[in-house]
Write a structure and sequence with these properties.
The structure holds 2 protein chains of 2 kinds. Chain A is of the alpha/beta class. Chain A folds into 3 domains: 198 residues, SGNH hydrolase (Rossmann fold); 145 residues, HAD superfamily/HAD-like (Rossmann fold); 169 residues, Aminopeptidase, CATH 3.40.630. Chain A is 38% helix and 19% strand. Chain A contains 22 helices and 18 strands. Chain A starts with a strand and ends in a 21-residue tail after the last strand. Chain B has one domain: Non-ribosomal Peptide Synthetase Peptidyl Carrier Protein, Chain A. Classes of the chains: A alpha/beta, B mainly alpha. At the A-B interface, helix 1, strand 2, helix 8 and helix 9 of A face helix 3 and helix 4 of B.
């Protein structure tokens, strides 16, 4: 069992009540909480030597009250002299202190400022731009979010939602006067759920796949019994509308990078007749990355489906109206998240919206296009089935690989790829965005990102390779490739670019040392058997002599990103397009 | 408080568990009949302190073996007031308790608090 992550709670109120909710074991990851000294927020944020920063926490939560953190706001609330400019200037100063503290912690969470629901403020003038506390609170929270938007490890969380969820029990003057406790336990419960979801998001452990049942889940009725024409879906009917609304929410998930799939006990042709022909279906065939529609055990179908999509079971969420099916999958596949599901279809959208397992720290263009990528994969598979040989298949794909230097524009996706890829990953180095970019810009180091496309579509940025050159030896530091394009020659194209770059930097040899993990054996297998590199002493070290250019596979067209090249010369030249 | 160290109330809760004093909240042991008020107090303790473990009628609320720390106890009392639509004033009683260890202190245990609430609400025992 791994040690719990250390979580530091910094607040100007008694925040000890949040700790037990964060430490509750039901919701991973495990956290061990400690509270910083009460009401010393700014000194704690600014003083790196304060006791509470040792040992360094993995996570910190800085939760303040607006009238305590921003004195100009306190004056405004009390109808004393103040101004919007003063309020915002103090917010900027607070943002500066948060940025300083963010350097000492893995991830920093900052709940937005709220006021008690019973506080009417200035009533009809509460949102007045000159004097209204509510207006200024909106501006303060917006300024806070904007000021921290580019801080890669700081996340502003919406405390207003926690307060709204808790209702009248959100806060009480009695709690404040008796214990300097700003919020009731219901607020802390909702806060802990969001903070833990945020921690999971930053660790890349968000769920990526929703496996859906069909009958009574995506539509009302049993399609095999009543026929697609008689399903409860859309129309002037509350339940039919609820199913359409649920499908709309699922469709919205796909735009965040969540992939949908079907596992249903049905006849496939009958199910697809409904999906293809029912006029009120929001989700079409191309919204699903895959499906297993048959009469087999659903747990077995889920395993096959997830494996076919190159995902892990820990990526999947299973939604089914049938409690027996949910229980079966829970028992057989504990890695799969199986939320309890309401009996009433009118509550399906609420149940989906309440799930915290889809939170991600960043949504990249590749995430948004993920379903499209899977659908294209399905068409590639169809092509592969009909091809006479692997070579013919690869030639017919029309693969194009484009390399580009690591830069601000591709840094978020490149870092996401570095930190989430497990299988084709030489060293499994995990870095933050600023650290990765700083490393790449250090003399002797180079990092290249690779985009891949073929005639079926664009895979996006799916490859990453870096090296460091020293005294004639070029060492591969990162070699990372998404499993979606493995085995199509992209690996060789990446090595071609690395070798070209290393040669341009004066290196005579290119070496790669595999650092084994529980999951990166495919990378070793590539270097051992298919890279053309030769074993160099240590059984996990491989080398290529740069007296010979590393060949580019014939079926791949290689492009650079224009004015740059993967060397340090700065000349606008494509890598030499040596052919195998 | 340091990382990873158990809170006082957690250590207390474990001690109570080891002695077998904490029972099943749905079927309270220790000779107390199941009733709505007792269930309310037990449920509210669990709401306030989700890591405290199972709580029974004789679980202590104050003293060295308390299942809650002082912040938790204050939160429990105010939350109970809210759940009872402020029909009782536990906060004032809490502030007026000169001797927390006195045998008549209503905050000694979950059961004594439930008894006090029952009397304040004018409900018969076991309601």
């Amino acid at each position: 069992m791994t040690d719990p992550m250390r979580c530091l709670l910094i607040s100007d109120f008694t925040i000890a009540g949040l700790g037990p909710f964060l430490e509750a074991a039901a919701d991973p990851p495990a956290l061990a909480c400690a509270a910083a000294p009460f009401d010393l927020v700014l000194p704690v944020l600014l003083d790196a030597t304060a006791d509470c920063w040792a040992p360094a926490p993995d996570v910190a939560v800085v939760w303040t009250q607006p009238h305590c953190a921003i004195k100009a706001f306190s004056r405004l609330v009390g109808s004393e002299p103040s101004s919007t400019a003063e309020v915002l200037r103090e917010v900027d100063e607070f943002v500066g202190a948060l940025r300083v503290a963010a350097g000492r912690v893995g991830t920093l969470f900052v709940p937005t400022w709220t006021r008690p629901g019973y506080d009417r403020g200035l009533g009809v003038l509460d949102v007045d731009p000159k004097v209204g506390p509510a207006y200024h609170l909106l501006r303060m929270n917006a300024r806070l979010a904007e000021g921290l938007a580019d801080a890669g490890n700081v996340f502003v969380l919406d405390a207003g939602r926690w307060v709204a969820q808790a209702g009248a029990a959100a806060s009480s003057p009695k709690l404040w006067h008796l214990g300097k406790i700003a919020f009731g336990p219901d607020v802390f419960k909702h806060a802990a759920a969001d903070i833990k979801a945020g921690v999971r998001a930053t660790r890349g452990s968000a769920r990526k796949l929703v496996v859906l049942d069909l009958d009574e889940t995506l539509w009302g009725g049993i399609v095999g019994d009543v026929g697609w024409e008689n399903l409860t879906l859309g129309g002037h009917d509350p339940v039919g509308e609820a199913y359409v609304a649920f499908q709309r929410e699922l469709k919205a998930l796909t735009r965040r990078g969540i992939v949908l799939a079907i596992v249903s006990k049905n006849t496939e042709a009958v199910a697809f007749e409904a999906i293809d022909r029912h006029p009120e279906m929001v989700l079409g065939r191309d919204d699903f990355a895959g499906w297993r529609i048959n009469w087999e055990d659903k747990a077995r179908n889920i395993v096959e489906l997830v494996t076919g999509l190159n995902l892990g079971l820990e990526s999947a969420v299973f939604i089914d109206d049938n409690p027996a099916e949910r229980a079966r999958v829970r028992e057989a596949l504990p890695q799969v998240a199986v939320p309890e599901w309401p009996k009433d279809p009118l509550l399906y959208t609420k149940a989906l919206a309440e799930l915290t397992c889809f939170d991600t720290a960043v949504i990249s263009a590749e995430d948004r296009a993920r379903t499209v990528l899977y659908v294209a994969d399905r068409r590639r598979d169809d092509l592969k089935q009909g091809a006479q040989s692997l070579e013919e298949y690869l030639r017919s794909l029309g693969l194009r690989v484009t390399w580009e230097r690591l830069a601000a524009a591709n840094l978020p996706r490149a870092t996401q790829l570095l930190n989430k890829t497990n299988q084709m990953n030489l060293t499994t180095r995990r870095l933050t965005e600023p650290t990765f970019l700083a490393w790449a810009e250090t003399g002797g180091n180079r990092a290249l990102a690779f985009r891949v496309a073929d005639r079926f579509g664009d895979y996006g940025l799916v490859g990453l390779a870096s090296l460091t050159v020293d005294a004639g030896m070029a060492e591969v530091v990162d070699f990372v490739l998404s499993c979606r394009v493995l085995g199509r020659g992209v690996e060789a194209a990446m090595l071609h670019c690395l070798a070209t770059s290393a040669r341009a930097a004066g290196a005579e040899r290119l070496a790669a040392t595999h650092r084994p993990t529980a999951r990166n054996a495919p990378c070793r297998e590539f270097f051992e058997s298919r890279s053309g590199f030769v074993r160099a002493g240590d059984e996990s070290r491989y080398e290529w002599s740069l007296t010979t250019p590393y060949p580019l596979p014939e079926h791949i067209v290689l492009d650079g990103d224009g004015e740059d090249r993967p060397s340090d010369s700065g000349r606008s030249t494509r890598p030499e397009a040596t052919r195998a | 408080m340091r990382f990873g160290e158990p809170r006082g109330h957690e250590a207390s809760a474990r001690g109570v568990l080891e002695e077998g004093a904490i029972g099943d909240p749905m079927s309270p042991p220790d000779g107390h009949p199941a009733d709505d008020v007792l269930s309310l107090v037990i449920d509210t303790v669990a709401t306030v302190a989700p890591t405290v473990g199972r709580v029974g009628a004789e679980s202590p609320l104050i003293g060295g073996r308390a299942v809650l720390d002082s912040v938790g106890l204050v939160t429990l009392l105010v939350t109970l007031e809210q759940r009872l639509d402020n029909a009782v004033d536990l906060s004032a009683l809490f502030m007026g308790q000169a001797d927390p260890d006195a045998p008549e202190n209503p905050f000694r245990t979950v059961a004594s608090l439930a008894d006090h609430l029952r009397r304040s609400l004018g409900r018969p025992a076991g309601s």
